[in-house]
Amino acid sequence: MIDFRSEIRLGLDRLWRHGDAGVLADRAFADLAWPLNRVEGRQAILDRFIAPLRAAFTGLHRRDLLFIGGRNIRETGGTWCACVTHYVGTFTAPLWGIAPSTHLAFLRAGEFYRVENGRIAEIKIIFDLPDLLRQCGRMPFPRIGTELAFPAPATQDGLLPTIGNGDATIGIINGMIADLHVYDPKTGASKGQTGTDGYWHEDMMWYGPAGIGSNFRWDGFVQDHRASFLNAFPDRRGGNHYCRFGDGNYAAISGWPSMTMTWQGDYLGLEADGRALTLRVMDFYRCDGRQICENWVCLDYGDLYRQMGGVIDGIGI
Q: Which PANTHER family does the UniProt record give (predicted)?
């Protein structure tokens, strides 16, 4: 029997390859990364999001790394699917102001889909346009970590997983988030994150968006992301999530926005001015039953940079 995860994944493949919108409910709406933001109605989603991508990438198709589903444990409830994917093809025509490279491109994205009666009623997607610019030789942010295409899970079992306990996995993530929220302002350390009994595996891999990049082990995570982020936003408050669920050894969480903060330290090459900011966040995790081994992180850094007063040349609608 094909479960709801398989049905939605197959529907999305038809949507992107052939423009078949049957997987979308008539009154579906989408919250998309900057510069698209809110798009309401199936036809508007087709016209403003899907059609421009299909026109810009010759041979456009999806390469999913993770595809999971489950019941949302947050108050908003609902049945959801979530995935990490790349939209892949030859970038041959302009996309939202970005001049094409005429070469192969991987536009990565994190996606959440609320499912009703076998169709998608609500969409949340963070696609990484700054990384697409990087692939075209026009990196908009200073380099911090290692910039790379997101890899599939080391265990190669992230598509419709069948192994593991989703309730236990999201329990690990809930505990980690609760403890990560509080940190020592002098060292940036939070209790319970590392060590033999910590939430994170010694050889954890953390995969981040353009402007952060990816890193290895907790020390790499601190060096390439956590230290500079806490310096810039020491009062950041997270956890405003509309969705959290576990599926096997995987879990997904997202907030739109998740973080609120004030800008108190220079960041992304811009000088701090104390203004209030928000950040849209998606996190996808693989655990081994006890600790977090891999974390794929999609952040809407185009929207954050816009709020900071920055201008990314070449992006606009």
A: ESTER CYCLASE, POLYKETIDE CYCLASE SNOAL-LIKE DOMAIN
Q: Could you report the per-residue pLDDT of 77-95, keeping only the tens digit for each?
A: 999 999 999 999 999 999 9
Q: Which of 284, 83, 85, 82 is nearest to 170 (CA)?
A: 284
158 in Cβ contact with 66 (< 8 Å): yes
Delimit the domains of the chain by residue range.
4-135, 166-307
3.30.360.10, 3.10.450.50, 1.10.3210.10, 2.130.10.10: CATH of 166-307: 3.10.450.50
- Give counts: helices (H), strands (E), the chain: 8, 12
**The predicted structure's pLDDT at residue 1:** 45
Note whether 4-135 and 166-307 share their fold.
Answer: yes
Determine the pLDDT at residue 188.
65
Residue in this structure with the two tokens 């529907």, named with its chain if needed: 11
Top pLDDT among 301 and 1 is at: 301
The pLDDT, as a whole number, for residue 187 is 65
pTM as predicted: 0.96
DSSP run (H or E) holding 232: helix 227-232
The CATH class given to the 4-135 domain equals alpha beta
Quote the Cα angle for 257-260-263, to 5°.
130
Distance CA 79, CA 250 (A): 16
DSSP letter at 13?
Answer: H
pLDDT single digits (tens) 101-156? 999 999 999 999 999 999 999 999 999 999 999 999 999 999 889 999 999 999 99
> Hunting for tokens 């029997």 — which residue is that?
1
**Strand positions, DSSP E, the chain:** 24-32, 37-40, 57-71, 79-91, 104-116, 119-127, 200-207, 215-216, 243-247, 250-262, 276-287, 292-299
pLDDT, residue 257, reads: 97
